[in-house]
Amino acid sequence: MLIVIAPDSFKECLSATEVAESIMRGILRIAPDAEIRKIPMADGGEGTVEALVAATGGQIHQMNTLDPLMRPIIAKYGVLGNVEVAVIEMAAASGLALVEPENRNPLKTSTYGTGLMIKHALEQGFKRIILGIGGSATNDGGAGMAQALGFQLLDSKGNEIAPGGGNLHQIAKIDGSNKNPMLANLQITVACDVTNPLCGPYGASAIFGPQKGANTQMVTQLDTALGHFAEIISRDLQREVADFPGAGAAGGLGAGLMAFTNATLAPGFQIISDLTNLEDSIANCDLVFTAEGRIDHQTQFGKTPIGVAKLARKYNKPLIALAGSVGSGTDELHELGITAIFSIANGPISMEESMTNAPSLLEKKAEQVMRLFFANGLS
């Protein structure tokens, strides 16, 4: 019996690898002879590096960079097992979790640290990068990243603008004469499941700005600044990025990556499932488990469980989804390929208790599911 475990991480609690291991322990209590194939997943956000490094037998590298407020930090990025591809999470340098709640201000936060990570990978000889752009603290359109890669963003007096999305309106000229020459041979694939444009009511500032600390006035200011930035990009770089699906991802970093590095955007789940051969594993298995911290009506919009569900449905495989909590609107998920959804909570418990005991709760729920599985003669 072959069982595939393809979970996402439980945010701020367990990595996707830890989730998979907990589920495996529960399965093996009831099916000790089962062949387990653990394939930790991610969608471009937190856990992308770990998932791909684990799946390919790669390595983790560390480097010095800057956080969203330009403070020194040490960040990690991955190298795939073929030693040819670097995997970077922009959240490692420019993520919201790096900024204390009281200091979150997208007028000031910058993607400069992400640019330094790309630069470091270039200097190590990598010509291909997979870049996950979930979980950002920024709204600067990738301006900081561009500056770290040698582009000069100049005001009307010829001075470099200061970091932060609030300063984009000052840009009068983009000078690429000193850009990193290694960019010419670089191929960046951006793991991005967001389709928002750069500006407007569905753009980066309006949709994602508030969760990064922007009030109503700041949202308007940031949106106007990004619009101005896009116009300068169009004029000086001859790149039309504002309306491209995904341009608004990560506070406009999607647009910046297309403009300054000629990156291509692709669904994060698809990138990771291809590299991990997830489809082949599901095609040949008997049962699939997936998991995420919370499963509700939003899960259908590009979240990992739905990516797994589509493959399970394609090959007519039963799929069990485990979650720290289950919200409303999950009926549609069954139609998309999830056979059954279970909360790992064993009763009314607090979020703190659920997070603290998540490994054992996952293990026990997986055990119970397997008991039911065998009781119905589905082995």
Concise summary:
Helix content is 37%, strand content 18%. It has helices at 16-30, 48-56, 91-94, 112-123, 143-148, 204-208, 216-237, 249-261, 268-276, 278-283, 304-314, 331-335, 351-356, 358-375; strands at 2-5, 35-38, 59-66, 72-79, 85-89, 128-132, 152-154, 173-175, 187-191, 264-266, 287-295, 319-326, 340-343.
How would you characterize the overall build of this protein?
The structure is a single chain. The chain is an alpha/beta fold and 379 residues long. It contains 14 helices and 13 strands. It has helices at 16-30, 48-56, 91-94, 112-123, 143-148, 204-208, 216-237, 249-261, 268-276, 278-283, 304-314, 331-335, 351-356, 358-375, and strands at residues 2-5, 35-38, 59-66, 72-79, 85-89, 128-132, 152-154, 173-175, 187-191, 264-266, 287-295, 319-326, 340-343. The strands form three sheets. A six-stranded mixed beta sheet has the order 3-4-5-6-9-10, with helices on both faces. A hairpin with a 5-residue loop joins strand 4 (72-79) and strand 5. Helix 7 (216-237) packs parallel to helix 8. The longest helix has 22 residues, at 216-237. The radius of gyration is 22 Å and the shape is elongated. It starts with a strand and ends with a helix. The mean pLDDT is 92.
